[in-house]
Write a structure and sequence with these properties.
The structure holds three protein chains of three kinds.
Chain A (H helix, E strand, L loop, with lengths): L7 H11 L4 H4 L21 H13 L22 H7 L2 H4 L11 H18 L3 E2 L6 H16 L3 E4 L5 H11 L5 E3 L19 E7 L11 H9 L3 E6 L18 E5 L15 E5 L12 E5 L5 E5 L6 H4 L12 H38 L4 E3 L7 E6 L3 H10 L6 E2 L10 E5 L6 H15 L1
Parallel strand pairs in A: 2-3, 2-4, 4-5, 5-6
Antiparallel strand pairs in A: 1-7, 6-7, 8-9, 10-11, 11-13, 12-13
Helix pairs in contact in A: 4-11, 6-11, 7-8
Chain B lengths: L58 H12 L22 H7 L2 H4 L11 H18 L3 E3 L5 H18 L6 E5 L5 H8 L3 E5 L9 H7 L4 E7 L11 H10 L3 E5 L19 E3 L20 E3 L11 E5 L2 E5 L20 H37 L15 E3 L11 H10 L6 E2 L9 E3 L7 H19 L3 H6 L11 H6 L11
Parallel strand pairs in B: 2-3, 2-4, 4-5, 5-6
Antiparallel strand pairs in B: 1-7, 6-7, 8-9, 10-12, 11-12
Helix pairs in contact in B: 2-9, 4-9, 5-6, 9-11
Chain C lengths: L2 E4 L4 E6 L2 E6 L1 H7 L2 E5 L6 E2 L4 E7 L3 E5 L4 E6 L9 H4 L8 E5 L11 H11 L1
Antiparallel strand pairs in C: 1-2, 2-3, 3-9, 4-6, 5-8, 6-7, 8-9
The chains are: A alpha/beta, B alpha/beta, C alpha+beta.
Chain lengths: 445, 498, 125
Amino acid sequence: MRYLPLSADDRGQMLAAIGVDSVDDLYRDVPAGGRLTSPIELPGHTGEIEVERALTSMAARNTPAGGAPSFLGGGIYRHFVPAAVDHLIQRGEFLTAYTPYQPEVSQGTLQYLFEFQTQVALLTGCDVANASMYDGATACAEAVIMAGRITKRKKAVVSGALHPHYAAVTATSTEFLGLELVTPNPDLTGEEDLSAMIGGDTACVVVQNPDFFGRVRDLTALADACHAQGALLVVVVTEIVALGLIKSPGEMGADIVAGEGQSLGNALNFGGPTVGLMATRQKFVRQLPGRLVGQTTDVDGQRGFVLTLSTREQHIRRDKATSNICTNSGLCALAFTIHLTMLGEVGLRKMAALNHAGAMRLAERLAGMAGVEVLNESFFNEFTVRLSKPASGVVDALAEKGVFAGVPVSRLLPDAEQLLLVAVTELNSDDDMDRLVNELEEALR
Amino acid sequence: MSAPETYTGNRGLQMEEPLIFEADSPGLCGVDFPDADITSDRLGGVKREGDIGLPGMAEPQVVRHYLRLSQKNYSIDAGFYPLGSCTMKHNPRLNEKLARLPGFAGLHPLQPETTTQGALELIDATAHWLSVLTGLPGVAMSPAAGAHGEFAGLMTIRAALEDRGDARKRVLVPESAHGTNPASAHACGYAVESIPANDRGRVDLDAFRAALDTDVAALMLTNPNTCGLFEDEIIEIAEAVHEAGAFFYCDGANFNAIVGRVRPGDLGIDCMHINLHKTFSTPHGGGGPGSGPVVLSEALTPYAPVPYVVRDGNRFRLIEDEGASDAKPFGRIKGFHGQFGVFVRALAYMMSLGADGLKQVAEDAVLNANYLMASLEDVLSAPFAGPCMHEVLFDDRFLADSGVSTLDFAKAMIDEGFHPMTMYFPLVVHGALLMEPTETESKAALDSFIGTVRSLAEKAKAGDAELFHEAPHLTPRRRLDETAAARKPVLRWLPPED
Amino acid sequence: MADVKYTKEHEWVRVEGDIGTIGITDHAQEQLGDMVFIELPDVGKTVDQGDEIAVIESVKAASEVYAPIGGEVVEVNEALGDEPAKVNSDPMGEGWIFKIKIADSAQLDGLLDEAAYKELAEGDA
């Protein structure tokens, strides 16, 4: 068995050194009722060739959006990731390292996380960011819990245009923490006005920008309304590339930003693993969940980095910790930070502009079609259209022809039958758009 | 002779590396894009005005930067990583290759179900392996890591209890537990009650029985426990839990010791999370991503969170919506469908080893740990008698009056080319040193480690405390000032003030 | 000379009139190690004896400070925000944490005197 380096001879010598006859003796503390009496009913060990064959055949039973004209978004976006990113994250020193609890032998991980925190802070317009969360949805839930801790209030006003998975995860995660969530129904026609729902008992308002339907808005007035009542504004960003082109949440007055960083450096991966982002104001840093890397010096006075403020975490605080999160998304954060370093200021802005330009072109073409109504006034790279037929049927029909038209909103909000979310990135060519328009015309005829 | 100072600060192959922000070449970019023409926009009046502040670099600079950073890390690829309770085993590269197949990595989570049948089959197959290996019928695949699995498991228990009109208020957790256990119980709204250990390093059965009543929702027990011992009274414990109408939650972080040999379901366990990044070899990645599926008894299965996969003849379906489910899911804990990319790696690993190989994994892991114990117990001090399971616990009595602390001792391991063992955990013994060799270390690697520990123990006892206080000497950075870092946290780079 | 009393949880309270000044003992700071942050209570907050009222964080631990006596928080030691190390260097002087207007001075009777506390702390070490 290729992963096991002990030889039969080694095992014999080691048993002798321990002073037992067989390995069964080492399991003598297992009570009789817990011992297996027959072999486990699973296949035996398999060579690399066979395993590769079996999984490759499973992969072949999928039609990946990565290889087709795809307009899928809804929280996970297909972007161009430079080859250097995957090359670097597969270095064993990154891939097979543990959490950097021993700073002297982990300066590589600690330094890139410090750089990652800085990049996330810059993008979101916040003072500080943590070293990542599981994903955007769990980051959103943690942001609401954090706002409750800071304000010592128990109510959160949650936008109806928040990604439905984020809303569901937040509801589940706060269910037994005494927090009450208040959510208006999704409103596709007017601008949702949450400010009237804020009261003296409101811990925070949660709003997504661009929102689930793709709309972009200025949140400054909402931030002011929150602050006037002593509440915090939590802004969720599911498409981080948007921040290359639109004002950052911090600039608009956000107190906590929770985001999904998958768009940078990370493959679609059927939705996971991805990388949750979380940023806030300096004054709330001790309430920020998750790991944090800080700068310090070593005994020789040289700059170095350490995990810090760890007393907030579960391994010390146990049931009083800011969160039960332990493992996060280190390697996905590395992919994010390398990709963003490759892009830099110039590249990210260009990439964001390409996304927006493509989305504007497609929106214009779709708006001219019979049976399609573009609902957005504003958007970044994703917008919502109303079709003359149920969207899921149309999407299935186009998928048969090898085109992924987008996300039928009904998959996440069952009542929204005719709505389709359409996303455009730098990977969508004009040919892709031609295919979409032609196939849509036929499907809607 | 000590090495000379260098002009660059580099030490041969060991390079100093600035932050990306200090290496900024404004205007440079490592990705070429066509120009985008956006003279007009539809950004709702919130177009960004100022600069973001990101540094510019070309590709060669970027590659060199991260490569140099990588060289400042210890890794399981490079050496022995005896971190107790972390299961740092070899990460097979076949798994990385398969996770990157375009048919997996290129799948969007919201594609039509007809186009993702292979992925749903993979989730189902992974769940099947976990279910058979643990002897528990249900599997919730969406938890993102171990602690997330604890949360999912306890929420499932809570939902099951409430469904039978039996809301309870307390969760019992042994004092030796991972810190995530009480934190997760708290996140589910439970009060946590700590159960002491007995002098054999196991749960104190009398104290446990005294704390158990009909207000207890669950016992959270790690087995094998964090002292590296099998809870030999576990069947009595399970019976008592069930008699009180409570559920038995097992922290499966240490499953590596028993996989293929003991099925937790046979021990009376109702619910257990499995760290795929421990037992099933998916890479730790410097702190994630992990994956923490939860296996469930029949009574708990209906309450598992969405989404989940069901098999319908030859077709796989993904149940995503709580309303569309014919079970009673407690909710949703993660966006989309769980850590799919991690499942691919774990399944490739399980298939590679098979039922026989996984049993051998457990046996070799336990053999390696007992070999360490037998080879070190005369120079170190073991608080509990063996046999141990896959990790061996020592305390700091062997350092008494030496002026050397557990921390000092562990740091001295670094100069010898080893990653330190887990220190000061579990909390039930003084100055704990917890060593987990895993099954992927050879006897030669163990012998080298044993020789090193013995030599250091002798030096410590001989009064060479200074050597230890100053350690490590040979790393890119030496001991770092954690107090200064925590008092005035500097958590990001800021441009120098002019 | 003001009257100083101690708790089993290693807090001290110095009583002057109806005001009690509260901090942690030298023994406690020694056990906890270098202080990095003190989470102070809000002035005006009313607490019962034994309530969790502040949190002290050292590099290696975080622990609660319990109110040795009930009453209203009338002042907190803002200087600890910048210099938490004062709790280490002068725990019973400049390292005081907060002051309480004592609601019921009879509660003081249940606390330890210096000799009793010393005995407790020695048994602890």
